[in-house]
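[audit] Reproducing an earlier prediction to check determinism. Same input, same settings, fresh worker. If the tokens differ from the archived copy the diff job will pick it up downstream; this log only records the rerun itself.
[audit] input (388 residues):
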Amino acid sequence: MRQTSTASDNTPQTTQTTQTTQTPRTPRAPRAAQPATAIRASSPPDLLAVVPHLLGFVPDLSLVVIGSAPPRDRIRVTLRYDLPDPPDADLAADIAAHAAGVLGAQRLPAALAVGYGPEALVAPVAGAFLDAARLAGITLHDVLRVENGRYWSYRCGNEACCPADGVPFDGSAHPVSAVMDAAGMRVLPGRAAVAGRIAPLDGAAAASMRGATRRAEQHAAALLGKVRKSGRTGAARQLIAAEGLNAVGSMIAAYRAGDRSASDYEIAWLTVALRDLRVRDDAWARMDPAHAEAHLRLWLDVTRRAQPGRVSAPAALLAFVAWQSGDGALANVALDRSLADDPRYSMALLLRQVIAAGAPPSLARLPMTPEEVAASYAGLGDGDDDEL
């Protein structure tokens, strides 16, 4: 798919269904697991009330594809794509092929799709997906179009239930929406609002972080300067890594305990230290899903406060934790910020490839234990330094 012209938010879910949906629970610690809330979505209005909760925001100018499987058409994956504007047959075919490919790779036998926007933009992509699903042997429950509080079906020509001027509905006032709101599945007004959650600070707060980051960079430079004459820059790297590892461990522990009082300098030093891959990998290895809520708070804070050139690592870690929590929209906007800061950042590129393939949160496994990370970097201290 041509990522330069169309975007996708792959939001894998493992607990919703088109017939009986269950709300996913964000892992919380130290509480024990809570039973899921069952929700029946057996009509187009039910489904349209559910979709924003699956995505985390109200879609617009989008195609949303939902893949399901037995028992009871349980939803396994939710994909969102920007509609090509102006219409583009090649891009429409790319979107349809990608969606059908994800469904096929996950062996999902059934799907439905909803296009949000005017007919001129929705119809080409909906038509391409109808063709791709048929060729792939995927059963389509329905293909809908939504605009201005009305919906139409591309598969139903019965005027009694699907009149030419559309069927009015109000998803936000639907009982299903109320249940999902109560379950904590928040809905933002659009994808831009999701991106706004991790927008960089401005004003006095940004100026304070700039000063703190300069001081953190000067501290790193001083460590390098102490051993530069000896030619053993690896010793400085080890010292910086040791301080960074302590900072990572302390910050994670603090956020898990509910403490969010980190100073600008503490955050700034963390962003500098995370440029060392062993520090980044140690942080990654500590992202236990039992503490996902605390980790989301941590990396949201660090990503917002990180200065240009220091955003790629915390934003990639945020993307991993968001994906781990089933929040594909947040994962994708975090990857946008990471790659905007460093288009070649390997962790972000890897996560984008995996998430774009529709991989479910259950695959967001920790790459190593902290002990394994330490062992993997043992003996590498005398190499060239990363740019800190």
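[audit] rerun output stored. Observation attached for the diff report: Residues 203-377 form one domain.
[audit] end
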